[in-house]
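Protein modeling request. Please complete all fields; requests missing the sequence field cannot be processed.
Requester role: graduate student
Desired output: 3D structure, token encoding
Chains: 1
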Amino acid sequence: MRILVVEDEVKTADYLRKGLSESGYRVEVALNGLDGQQLIQTQAFDLIILDVMLPGLDGWQLLQNIRQTSQTPVLFLTARDAVEDRVKGLELGADDYLVKPFSYAELLARVRTLLRRGPPRESAEFQVADLQLDLLRRQVTRQGERINLTNKEFALLHLLMSREGEVLSRAFIAAQVWQMNFDSDTNVVDVAIRRLRAKVDDPYPQKLIHTVRGMGYLLGEQP
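Delivered output (223 residues):
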């Protein structure tokens, strides 16, 4: 299980890294909101532990950005103990809220509870409009016609369809499909998207893969 800790207090961040690592988790730490966002966009985590008062991008803003593209469990760990802060955090999409100073035993119990919920079981079949993907058979069809894809094209389409309607950044796509850190000078994602469009979109009147300028790509029906 991989946990991201976004915490600007170095002593607290080190304490969390040490404790959670000794409890068997793989832990990454970001000391500000912008670095946290970069890690979230390029890597997959099972849980995010998030402070509210962060430099660069505060926890409220970061959570809102997370919820635009992901349902990864988020635990707020913060000194903000007012009832309205707790309510705000939960309404923005946090899964739990723990106030500092905290007991590590309680934190660990909450972490384990959130991780036990686990992500929803992934379907083996996906359908968007007339486009279908069968994960077990590794088969893609549109309007009943078989579409032959390379392994990377299939992985890219699977990623897009499994996150239907979500804007996926180039960095996130590169990390998930090619297991690489995205270099802005590399156009591997754009080239792959063009090739995929040529097979699943260009021959058909309804386009399903869309470019979101300055952000990335999404797959879905557009009004």
